[in-house]
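INFO worker-7 received task bundle
INFO bundle size: 2
INFO processing item 0
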Amino acid sequence: MAKIFRVKGWFQQRWQRSTFTRELCALSERQALERIYSEVGSRHKVKRNLIHIEDISEIKPEEIKDPRVRAMVG
């Protein structure tokens, strides 16, 4: 059964620091972390060692803020 995770973190891109909060469906916390590394690295051309995760937590369906994730859950 898929769970919903909220991941908060930041990444260093040149001389500036960019923060992010992302919600996604994954089977485990480890899979959610892998998807974050993959998506942020691909989108912003940042290596994994420059992506820092501050918090990863499982959330309830009522707490979802992202409309795309909410539509997937139903």
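INFO item 0 finished
INFO processing item 1
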Amino acid sequence: MGILQKVAALLIKRQNINKEIENLQNSCNHPKRSLKLTQERLDSTSLVIRWVCDDCSKTVGLPSKKEEQEYLLKE
């Protein structure tokens, strides 16, 4: 199997995994959330503070300025 075929196969696997993660996150009720540092975007190295579901790791909200300050002081 050549490099092109390996890359294509891996890209298909990644797409399938991303779809499965999306399905799990969409079916989650997000019962518990925490403030966490997360990547701003998948292709970014910038970190931002977001509310994240503890069960499925989906970003579920933006913190207020006060919540951000409290999080930063706690860390």
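INFO item 1 finished
INFO post-check item 1: The first strand starts at residue 33 and ends at 39.
INFO post-check item 1: The longest helix spans residues 3-27.
INFO worker-7 idle
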